[in-house]
Amino acid sequence: MQVKDIMTKSACSVRASHHLNEAAHLMWELDCGCIPVSDESQRITGVITDRDICMAAYTKGLPIEMIPVNTSMSATVYSCSAQDSLESAEDVMRHHQVRRLPVLDKKQKLVGILSLNDIALAYDNRLLESSVKATDLARTLASVCKHSHGSLMSITS
After folding, report:
1. Which has the higher per-residue pLDDT, 26 or 145?
2. CB atoms within 10 A of CB 93
3. What is the pLDDT of residue 121?
4. Three-state DSSP class for residue 106
């Protein structure tokens, strides 16, 4: 199975010069937690997540309408193409611990997003029965969800 068979095709991007409130607004409207960041020629140059927005507001102590996207986005973009196999896209997700991959064309322009949700829903809808085992899906989810900072600490009052 190829990425194009299950990716979300209605993806959009935000500019690096926009403010975090614009990215948050798009995430709210699109019911997603990640927006690719594009330059003036619509090439993808970064990714901003809902967590990035939350942490920027916390660490900078400013309202999100005052914080530019480029100060909080990840400039490292892990992506795939629509023609890639689902297995290779999952390998990228596992290796880099990312929940979503922008799907880019040869000119690095956005054509969709592949998320863990897309993979899980495709599996649940029996679209992946012949090509993906439940154990593969569970392995990808477990790899992506590993904590990178060791054990969790609790917050007490």
Report:
1. 26
2. 23
3. 85
4. coil
